[in-house]
Amino acid sequence: MGCSDDGTGASETLPTSSTDTSDSSTTGDPTTTSSTTAIPTTSDTSPGGSETSDETTTTTTTTDPITSTTDVDDTTTTTGPDPTCGNAALDAGEVCDGTELGGATCESEGFDGGTLACQADCTALDVSGCTMVTCGNGGIDGQEACDGADLGDETCVTQGFEGGTLACAANCMEFDTSQCATCGNDALEVDEVCDGTALGGETCETQGFAGGQLACQADCSGLDTTGCTTCGDGDIDAGEQCDSADLGGATCQSLGLGSGAVTCAATCEFDTSACVPSEGLFVTLRTADNMLRKLDPETLAFTDIAPLTVDFDFGDLAWDGADQILYMIDGRPSESLFTVNVANANATLIGTHGIEDLFGLVWDPTTGKLHGSGETPNGFYEMNQLTGFPTFIGNPMQPADGITHDSTRDQIVALAAGVGTMYEIDRLTGAVAQVLSDQGFVDNCGLAYHAGQDLLFAIDWSGNLYTYDPNNSYQRTQLLSGLGAHDGLAFIPGLE
Questions:
Q1: Calpha distance 486→489 (Å, rounded)
Q2: Cα(460)–Cα(452) distance, rounded to whole angstroms?
Q3: Rounded Cα gap, residues 173 and 177, in angstroms
Q4: Which one of 54, 168, 345, 400 is CB 3.0 to 4.6 Å from 414, fit for a cystine?
Q5: Burial letters for 388-415: b for 16+ Cβ neighbours within 10 Å, e otherwise?
Q6: How far apart are CA 315 and CA 280, in angstroms?
Q7: What is the mean pLDDT of residues 413-440?
Q8: With contact defined as beta carbons under 8 Å apart, do 444 and 314 qualify?
Q9: Inter-CA distances, 24 with 61, 66, 113, 368, 468, Å
């Protein structure tokens, strides 16, 4: 019997596959829908342990439009954990994630209130929005770094600065270092008097000096005026030979430079360019008979004055041009300091110095001081002109047998017996300022400077008379020999 197809045949099999590719617009085709639900599950992967994973269940629903019969196909797949920071879920290795803070609050973190957040990389909580109600009570509470004047024993120094005044920030969570200072950055900061080249507008002149270069002390606590000078104020100060018209009584004659007028240079040093070296003679001692003798530097002729009234072995002579006094030092045997009358060789004891082999003697017109020099032991001394007492200044580390003052170069020059080294002594330290020459052997000797010839003369125990030329690398020239043993030498301007 023929009848129309009503689509209700029980033997008909309805399609359930979600992959049906028939045209959905054809009447009688099944309608297929699907949905996905994530269901967390736990699977045991080892004895006593478990591993959490995500199961993704896909549900496919197929409905026949004629019979309205629905088939459901559930398909479940398993994937690994999602560690992506920013998914608002706590994944492995995350402290927090977005608004997911694991139950933490500002209060649980030690604050009084505020809004807790998560750092962008999910590795830590962000407490910048938390607050402390106790901030401002003058005592450190909870997470406070400081509170008012309570800095917890912290200072600018403990915070890595050189000094200054540390304070507490308004939120009590950090220190205010705006008043801390770093010495050495050439910037004038709080509590610093100066810093490097930053002198706050101060100069040597504002500090009361005549000029010079002002500096800052290394710790920025004060100004360094050692580079300032008072030269030009009309008064002789430390380190100055003269100042303007104040010459300290110096004359060409007192400086051993003959006649003429001394003036003061802009550097507060003597200007002796107008001095005219006067004629004069050397005096020396022949050791065999203690004879005081005169030596003419022009003719090289000797004239005996008289024997000393005391015994003389090794020693030296020095002329004080300011007081017109001839001094004599005896290194052996009396170890004493004397004055000597140039006219009759009469020696007057000043005092015993007590140093064996104190063989050299020089008067320094620049300082007005008398100095002695030793051979064994080596040493440079200031000799008290009233008592003969020696004050040790320093050790040149080599003998200074003959010694004199070069007035042209303002140098204390020494000559070492034996090796014959000639060198300049630093009058302030006693050390060797510079080696001038090494012309070979010379015996125990006297050394003196002749300003007129600009030469150094030396006479020694071997009976030799030498000159050393400062203008020719201190080249030595032997003038005489066979004179017999002599020691000590001094030039006296105007002596006839």
A1: 9
A2: 22
A3: 13
A4: 400
A5: bbbeebbbbeebbbbbbbbbeebbbbbb
A6: 22
A7: 95
A8: yes
A9: 15, 14, 61, 127, 128
The rounded distance, in Å, linking the Cα atoms of 164 and 192 is 8
18 close to 34: Cβ distance less than 8 angstroms: yes
Burial of 340 (0-12, 13-18, 19+ CB in 10 A): buried
The CA distance from 457 to 215, in Å, is: 45
The residue whose two tokens read 């002390």 is 217
Per-residue buried b or exposed e for 174-210, using 16+ beta carbons within 10 Å of the residue's own CB:
ebebeebbbbeeeebbeebbbbbebbeeeebeeeebb
- Return the H-helix or E-strand segment holding 39: strand 31-46
β-sheet bridge partners, residue 148: none
C-alpha angle 469/471/477, rounded to 5°? 20
Identity of the residue numbered 283: V
The whole-number average pLDDT for the span 320-330 is 93
Distance CA 158, CA 186 (A): 22
pTM, to two decimals: 0.52
In the chain, how long is the greatest CA-to-CA distance?
Answer: 182
Query: Residue 331: left (phi > 0), alpha (psi -120 to 50), or beta?
Result: alpha
Helix, coil or strand: residue 409? coil
At 102, list the tokens. 């694991």
* Radius of gyration, CA atoms only, the chain: 52
Quote the CA–CA distance of 228 and 118 in Å, as a whole number: 62
Mean pLDDT confidence for 377-403:
94
Residue indicated by tokens 């997470």: 143
Going by their DSSP bridges, the two strands 475-480 and 465-469 should be labelled as: antiparallel
Q: Coil, strand, or helix at residue 471? A: helix
Residue 283 · residue 293 · CB < 8 Å: yes
| pLDDT digit string, tens, across residues 468-493 | 999 999 999 999 999 999 999 999 98
What digits encode the pLDDT tens for the residues 63-96?
444 444 444 444 444 444 446 799 999 898 899 9
Under DSSP, is residue 472 helix (H, G, I), strand (E, B) or coil? helix
Residue 309 CA, chain-centre distance (Å), reads: 58
What integer pLDDT is reported at residue 81 of this predicted model?
42
Structure confidence at residue 83 (pLDDT): 62
Residue 459, judged by CB atoms within 10 A of its CB (0-12, 13-18, 19+), counts as buried
Tracing tokens 């004069």 back to the chain, one arrives at 280
